[in-house]
Every structure is written in structure tokens, then in C-alpha cells.
């Protein structure tokens, strides 16, 4: 089994080789942190989006969807706080001229100490064998305790500095921790400065008319400004939600780790409008509901964990992330935020329009509170892909690369192969392909030997391969091979739709939610 770094590298090259993801404008040497989804990637991405949409909108009678424009009135971003507060603290190394997020440097440093503790535990476990009591060791070993205390101290200093917006102190933490630039190895740091993450452009063809507008940094504001439109036209009663998927843009300072942090990405967000005072109940409800959505995919539960935010965003009174264990460690995959009435109140103030709800049960009007769930579609894609990518040693000592994606998410569900390219087999295969393609993404392949064709489909995660051979012409049966077990079975062509549907249907997964 490759180590994590190697595994990640393999996932990235596999994504390109098998038509999942290409670097944007590759022929011009690419554009940093911008990617294109290729023929298989676009299918997988669409299927993940559909899984989210069905579970959030179709299965909740009190949640509806919208598709708001990317461009919004510039005052939107003044009201939301993004013009003034959507910043990252950045720091430059004077020797390498590289720019970093100051908070990420500190978080990475803390993660390194955490890794030291884990190493210590691992070593002791090996030394003591079966008698090893991990919990006791973590509570008593002097080196572990010393490192724990170090983490606690830095963490507290860092939290206080962020809360007080004290950038001098953030820099001092970097200096005191003796954090070096990974490129130059030096500690020659500039001051820490705030950097706004929004992209701006101009609307209007004549310079004097031009007004600065922003590419939305989150889809959520399109929902907030439409809150009353949807509530009235949909006769929605609180509690209710509005969901949306779409592109968002952020001028990330440190864009790395493939599609994990991009400058153009897609979000799937839902704002749930509730009675003030009930937000902690709904916050807990959505934390649990969203985690269930992830677990239903069959990924081991220990790959996910909750992480409470150190510093709450300007709009939140409680917030956490669902973190996933990517090949480069546990990182944020989804955010769940209790946003209070901050956004609606701000939009009321800046627009001069009332954004209130008349609650017939209470016989009073109020500005609703909001709990939001927000997941990056590209990050979910990366989580699934890095989890699904396997290099398997087979009995005959060869290796196959297989993507064991949940079958309902696989880009292509069925590949149909004529065993030979003659004797009426391609025509029969075409008949089967034509029968199945109305319900599923199918493909047909005639080139190469069957073994190679199987490997190619394994590598893109196709759950079923169907082979048409001379016997098919006699008795209308085919062999169907299942991706993970590689087992082949002879079945009647008339049974194919049922067998395939049973395995690739999204319904089974939705029923688990
Ligand atoms: N409306 C709230 C909001 O936007 P966020 O935590 O800033 O919250 C939500 O973003 C999710 O969007 C993240 O959990 C992540 O999955 C995704 N995301 C944020 N920035 C991203 C980026 N630069 N590239 C890819 N995904 C990103």
C-alpha cells in the first residue's frame, strides 16, 4: 500500500489519465488552482450533486431550491460583511518571496506536534504489545503531556490573537514557534496583513458607467436576498429551507492540494430559516443529518469527525466543520453554521426593505434565524476519489487499479463488450447498449482483449461489464462481471435491467437517510 503522499500523487495522475480532471488551460501551462472536469469527472460530479439535491430538496417537503445569479448587486457584499471582513491573514517570507496564510502556518505547526504525540503512542504500542493501555499512556507519559501542553498554549494564544484581530501577535506566534518557510528554510518574515478574498470586475461597457461588482464568494447570499420572494411565492412556513448549488470564487492566497482549495469552485448550500431561540436545536439536527448523509455512502465512519471553529465567522454564534481524512490529513469538507439573524438584518438595513416573517402561531413578525449547511462539491469529489482509488494485488500477481466508488455515483454504470468484433456480436452488443442507455450511462468498447477492457472500466469505477459472446446468439444470455468481486455470472439479457437497477439505484441510499 502506497504511503499517503504517494497515494495522493497517484490519485492526481489517475484523474488526468482517466478523464476525470484536467488543469485549466493546460496548453498554456495551466492556471493556478483552477481545474476543468473531464468526461468522467463531470458525470461523477453531477451524480454527487444529484445525491445532495435529492436528499436535501426532494426528501424534505419544507426545503425548496433556487438558482441565483453569480453576479449580485455590490451592496449585497457590503451588507454581508464580505467587503470589510472576508480576509485571510497573509505573511511573506522575504528570502523565498513565497506568500503564506499565517493561520495555516500555525495550524500546520500544531498538526506536527500532534503527529509527534501519535508517533510516541505508536512506538509505545509496539513496545508493550497487547498489554498496552493507550488512554493511560496518553494521560501519563511525560513527553506526550509536554507536547499536549504546548499545543494548548499555542492554541489559546492563537485563538485570542484571532479574536482580537491582533496581527502583530499572530506574527509573534510564528516567530516564537520558530516556524520556518518550507521553501527557503528561513525565519525572515514580513508583517502579517489582511487580504480580501473576493474577485472583482466591472459591469458596463463605458468606463464612467462602470461599477465594481464581485464574483460571489459564497452562494448563500443569493438565498438570503431571495428569502421573502421564496417564502411568499412558495407559501413557506417556518421552519423551512432554501437550497442551491453553484459556483463560488475566492482569490485564495495559498491554493494547493489539487482540487481541495481552488479559486473557482462549486458549493452546495442550504439555509434553514427558523424561529429565534431554536437555533441550537436545529444546529444539532443538521449536524447529525449531514453526518448521516456522508455515512450512508459506506465510507468508514472514522474517516469523518466534527471540528468546532476556533474563531467564529463574523455572522455565526456556533459553527463546526465536518472534517474528512484526506490523504494529507483531516481537513474541512463541510461547514455547519448557526448564522443567527445577522444576514437578513444586514440586508434589511442596507436595502431598507423588511425581511420579516409573520408567524401565525405566535401571532408576531420577526427576522428568522438561520442554520446553514455548506459543502464544497469539489472537496466531496476529492474525498470520494481518494477513498475509492485502490491498487489491488491479484491472485496471478498482477496489479489492478480500481475505483470502488459507490455504484450509484459511478460515472458509467455499464460497459458492453462484444467478445469479438465479428459474427454479429457487435450488433447484439449494440442492441443491449440501446436497451440500457435510456436508464443508465453506458459505454461500448470493441478494442483490445477482454482483460484490458475490464481493467480500463475498473480504473474509472464502472460497476458492471457485460460481455456478448457466441453463446449469446444462441440463448440470449450474456456474462455480467461485477467490479469489486470480479465475479462473472451468466444471465438472461431480459434480467439485465433488474440486476443493474438493484445495484446502481440511488433510492436504496436515500432510504438510509
Ligand atoms: N456560506 C458559508 C461558507 O461559504 P465556508 O466554510 O467558507 O462557508 C463552505 O465554505 C465549504 O465550501 C467548505 O466547507 C468547503 O468544502 C468549500 N470551499 C470553501 N473554499 C473552497 C475553495 N477555495 N476550494 C474548494 N472548496 C472550497
Can you tag this structure with a few keywords?
alpha+beta; 7-stranded mixed beta sheet; 18 helices; 24% strand; binds glycyl-adenosine-5'-phosphate
**Biggest pleated-sheet summary:** 7 strands, mixed
Which assembly state applies to the chains in this document? single chain
Low-confidence stretches: none
Structural class: alpha+beta
The largest beta-sheet arranges its strands as: 3-9-10-16-13-12-11
Number of continuous helical runs: 18
Shape: globular
Distance, first to last CA: 33 Å
Cofactors and ligands present?
glycyl-adenosine-5'-phosphate
Percent in strands: 15-25%
Helix and strand arrangement:
Layout: H1 4-17, E1 21-23, E2 35-37, H2 39-58, E3 63-65, H3 75-80, H4 82-85, E4 87-92, E5 99-101, H5 102-128, H6 134-140, H7 142-163, H8 167-176, E6 193-196, E7 200-203, E8 211-214, H9 220-224, H10 227-233, E9 240-249, E10 264-274, H11 279-295, E11 304-308, E12 318-326, E13 329-340, H12 342-351, E14 357-359, E15 364-366, E16 369-376, H13 377-388, E17 389-393, E18 399-403, E19 414-418, H14 425-436, E20 442-444, H15 450-460, E21 464-468, H16 470-475, E22 477-482, E23 488-492, H17 496-504, H18 507-511
Parallel strand pairs: 3-9, 19-20, 19-21
Antiparallel strand pairs: 1-2, 4-5, 4-6, 7-8, 9-10, 10-16, 11-12, 12-13, 13-16, 14-15, 17-18, 21-22, 22-23
Helix pairs in contact: 2-13, 5-7, 5-8, 7-8
The site of glycyl-adenosine-5'-phosphate (GAP) has 19 residues, from strand 10, strand 13, strand 16 and helix 13.
